[in-house]
Design brief:
- The chain has about 140 residues and is an alpha+beta fold.
- The chain has helices at about 15-20, 100-110, 115-140, and strands at about 25-30, 35, 45-50, 50-60, 60-70, 75, 90, 95-100.
- The chain has a single domain (about 1-140), classed as Jelly Rolls.
- About 30% of the residues lie in helices and about 30% in strands.
- The N and C termini lie far apart (about 40 Å).
Amino acid sequence: MASLSPLLSNFPPEDVAQLSIFGEARHYVAGEVIIEENEANKYLYLVLKGSVEVTKKGDHGPRLIAEIPQTGSIGEMSIFDPGPSSATVKALTDVEVWRATQENLERMHEVRPKVAYRLVTRICEVLAKRLRQLNQKYVDMV
């Protein structure tokens, strides 16, 4: 799993192996909605196989925000904020994911605190990078 996700890029193999204990694998078929905008989502997802699209509702239908390939992650905000999802995520192809809840990460923190810390730190890095990109897009539009 480490070579498949930037979130896990600096994880030792033994730590990556531990992650499967604290989450679950899921399969989605092409076209299936994984996360629905404005609905509750409690999962962080790592895309292990396939790709997904992220869309946001607009005045003239859904607007494509991003395509997340194999190795990407989605749902990171749900680990910190259990509010409604900010976008819809749909499988573009058949997709295999590993997913975990905030409760899974809390349990990981109790059992493997260094692994949990490393994962949460990487999630924060991903969110910070996306915020910087969004800030730049905003500045470019103004």
